[in-house]
Amino acid sequence: MYQPDRLTKWRIQRCSVGGAEWEGKMKRIASVVGMATVMVLSLAGHASAKVIDKGAFHDEFSYRVGNFCDVSGLTVRQDVTVDGSFAIKTHGADQLAYFQSHTRIRVVYTNVATDRYVTEVTGVMEKDLRVTANGDGPLTILVLATGPSSVYDESGKAIARNPGQFRYKILVDDGGTPSDPSDDEFLKFLGVVKESTGRTDDFCAAVVPAIS
Known about the structure:
Elements: H1 4-15, H2 22-42, E1 53-65, E2 76-91, E3 96-111, E4 117-133, E5 138-146, E6 149-152, E7 158-162, E8 165-173, E9 185-194, H3 203-211
Antiparallel strand pairs: 1-2, 2-3, 3-4, 4-5, 4-6, 5-8, 6-7, 8-9
Helix pairs in contact: 1-2
């Protein structure tokens, strides 16, 4: 299992900016899931050549966001549940570790002033497309993220959807051992390199009226 306390702190830092657009929200979810799978991989033990390692992870946490969606005075509590599974194996001459994960994220957004809420359900499949050893310690990892995300109002009606996919990069410290993921440490979310495809609804335009 990954380290929940450390992961939670990083998630709060990455997610609590409040989001202005649905795509921005999806980017933050991707970084959350990427961090989760990196931390799982870090504690999964040494992955020798051609050996697949598998496991599962679960986390629950809550936090508050002020001026949610850039609306002055709007404070929202976010209750988050994350469940997923992963598989890792080595590739290439350098036997670098690649991972793939399937994650379900459920977030309930509650207006603390009115108790009105919406629920966001996201199913994410992530897969490492390319792992690059930079030679000076860090690994640059290109990740493909796909899967639908939908927001539902209190009646269960879908009010926003994003079924697309995108690609992003993260930077990971390999601890001086590029082929051994047991000492890896997440360093930085490097951003999205290919924007979301398909339908992209405006997250805030859907959520703010529903919880006001």
